[in-house]
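Supplementary Note 3. Input sequence used for the single-chain structure prediction.
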Amino acid sequence: MVYLARLDGAVIAVDLGWWDAPRKVRRALGELDAAPAEVTHVFLTHSHRDHVGAWRLLRRSEFHLAQGERAAFTGERRHSGWGPRVVEALKATDLPRHGELDIRTFSRDTAYVFGPDTVYAYVVPGHTAGSAVYLVRGVLFLGDAATYTPWGGFAPAVPRHSDDPALAARSLHALWGRLPAGRVHYVCTAHARCAPFSPAFLRDVEH
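The predicted structure, written as discrete structure tokens, is reproduced below.
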């Protein structure tokens, strides 16, 4: 999933997809009557290949990600989950080299203010070393910190794709108390499953 929004004085993206990502991002920007050059900020939940596909298209933007993810995003460190390691051995991901992008990192929960809008960033390590989630206009974008399957419902990060599954589950559990009261209305995984933020959701994702 790629999320794009026009905020006050900015166009932002949360994650950048994978297959055919540049074309899909262009099409979505067209719905906002915006061009790639107008995207000012990209917020990455993590740097697995299915989240960074359109980075070249938006290379003039500021890229925001957790400090712990920077080295993986620039190819200086590999993810340790066995799923990503196998895939990378078959075909390496096209990643930016050090210094190729304007990368801004955060090491703790951070707020980015765009006029009346605020993008809240939260560090939730485990799925990757620097996984993060973002709250934008009442929607919490969980990346792969949570997942959904038709047979199992919501759950923490998929173990085979995660650097540290136990840490991922703890980070997700610790997240709920850090969110601003009353400002989260929906939660979305990175693979296009959304649900109301409710006690029922919390019960599902914790089990």
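The domain at 3-205 is CATH 3.60.15.10 (Metallo-beta-lactamase; Chain A). The radius of gyration is 16 Å.
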